[in-house]
Automatic annotation (TrEMBL):
Keywords: DNA-binding, Transcription, Transcription regulation. Residues 17-109 form the HTH hxlR-type domain. It comes from the Bacteria. This is Helix-turn-helix domain-containing protein. Transmembrane segments: none annotated. PANTHER family: HTH-TYPE TRANSCRIPTIONAL REGULATOR YODB, TRANSCRIPTIONAL REGULATOR, MARR FAMILY.
Length: 116
């Protein structure tokens, strides 16, 4: 499994600029959900799978592998997963986008309960 990395071709960019690599990584199905679910602390595979609406185990394994390879998530010796320093920074960087999206939904009249 190969996670997108800055410096090489990624989806939407042949140059692999860091932002494009990050957008490719976080644009993959379930990646942001995994980041969201790990925001409060470590979780085991099954607990994480349940919190992600029982996504398939093969997709979760693939996403976790990519996020571990990208150093966004770490697997601890007890086999739980947690955000790394980079992962926590990514979560914090995405919080303003979450607030903006809530305002956007309100503007469109489709607002739901805020998550972040």
């Amino acid at each position: 499994m190969t996670a997108p990395k800055p410096g090489g071709p990624v989806r939407g960019s042949t140059t692999g600029r860091p932002l494009m690599a990050a957008l490719d990584l976080f644009g993959r199905r379930w990646s942001l959900r995994v980041l969201w679910e790990l925001r409060e602390g470590p979780l085991g595979f099954r607990a994480l799978q349940q919190r992600c609406g029982n996504m398939s185990s093969s997709v979760l394994r693939q996403r976790l592998g990519e996020l571990v390879e990208s150093r966004i998530v770490a697997q601890l010796p007890d086999t739980t997963y947690e955000l790394t320093g980079l992962g926590r920074e990514a979560y914090e960087a995405l919080r303003p986008l979450g607030r903006w999206s809530q305002r956007w939904a309100e503007e469109l009249g489709t607002a739901a309960e805020p998550e972040a």
